[in-house]
Amino acid sequence: MNVMFEVRGSTGLVLPQGDLTAETADSFREQFIRWMQGATGVRNVVVDLGAVGFMDSSGLGILIALLKRVSERGGDLKIACLGKKVRLVFEITRAYKVFEILDTVDEAVAACK
Questions:
Q1: Is the pLDDT of residue 104 over 80?
Q2: Within the chain, how many helices (H) and strands (E) appear?
């Protein structure tokens, strides 16, 4: 899985590309952890799922683990740009009750302030 990272002030922007499944979840988590270790000024994180075409329960589990990691740092993790298939996973599992989900990255970054 290809993951790009950006920083906007004290908010990190995470942009995974591809499917977030059991096959790619470990790679995504490892890339995120390495990035967070180097991004010491980042407190809050926005995960832009706009380029994720499909996500299974393993992908959702990784997002929950990342939420915990960011929370331990004193920050918050927001989700942005859900496509139909990915949104369905959040609805079926009721994970929308765990994450704040916003329509755009800009809205999510603004919500972190």
A1: yes
A2: 4, 5
Structural Rg of the chain based on CA atoms: 13
Centre a 10 Å sphere on the Cβ of residue 102 and count the other Cβ atoms it contains.
19
- Kindly state the tokens that stand for 31: 């890339």
Q: Does residue 57 register a pLDDT over 90?
A: yes
Torsion angles phi and psi, residue 77, rounded to 5: -120, 125
Query: How many other CB atoms are found less than 10 A from the CB of residue 37?
Result: 8
Could you list the beta-strand ranges (E) of the chain. Answer: 2-8, 11-17, 44-48, 77-80, 100-102
pTM (2 d.p.)? 0.95
- Specify whether the CB–CB gap between 84 and 55 falls below 8 A: no
DSSP class of residue 103 equals: S
Contact between 45 and 77 (Cβ < 8 Å): yes
Give tens-digit pLDDT for 65-96: 999 999 999 999 999 999 999 999 999 999 99
Residue-wise pLDDT for 28-43, tens only, equals: 999 999 999 999 889 9
